[in-house]
Specification:
single chain; 183 residues; alpha+beta; 5-stranded antiparallel sheet; 14% helix; 32% strand
């Protein structure tokens, strides 16, 4: 009986896109275009819905939808006219478009800064991109309450990443994959 328990195969590790930015060092600035960037590997769940969350309901009252059915092979998504309230503790979350309780990936906490703040510094290295012939498409979201509204635009070009943000994203994805082994 003991041999049967030990011989049972483990489920494959959960694959997930790893969100590299925004992050603590790659903050967003209110009322300008800001980029979400991630790493993609074959086998990652796709498409995903992208939402923004914040545990402080004075800053954001509930989840805020950024885009639906985003193809993760694009590795970047540009959010234009960010009107989220300035504050800290925001996270970008990738969720299953069919089951919103299934979270694929979370960014690290980031801040939304006031208009006029210079954009976050980035490194000179850029994330590899996948080719796309679909062109640009746009999606809009509006939310009542203190969260405001934003318009998001898909962009096939990747945003440069800082080394620290890339490392944090890889560590977060590794932790998710490792935790799947114990389930």
């Amino acid at each position: 009986m003991r041999a049967a328990i030990l011989a049972r195969p483990r489920p494959p590790p959960l694959r997930c896109p790893c969100i590299n930015g925004p992050s603590a060092s790659q903050f967003w600035v209110q009322n300008i275009s800001n980029t979400i960037s991630w790493s993609f590997s074959q086998g990652d769940p796709s498409p995903v819905d992208i939402i923004v969350t914040n545990g402080d309901n004075r800053t954001l009252n509930g989840d805020f939808s950024i885009a639906r059915f985003v193809n993760v092979s694009q590795e970047t998504f540009t959010v234009t006219n960010v009107t989220l309230l300035t504050g800290t503790g925001y996270q970008v979350v990738f969720i299953n478009p069919i089951n919103s309780t299934q979270v694929y990936a979370n960014s690290s906490d980031f801040e939304v800064k006031a208009p006029g703040t210079p954009p976050a510094p980035t490194s000179s290295a850029s994330t590899p991109t996948s080719s796309s012939t679909s062109g640009n498409s746009s999606a809009s979201s509006t939310s009542a309450g203190p969260s405001g509204s934003s318009t998001a635009k898909k962009n096939g070009a990747a945003a440069p990443l800082s080394a620290r943000a890339s490392t944090a994203g890889l560590l977060a994805c590794g932790a998710v994959a490792l935790s799947a082994l114990f389930l």
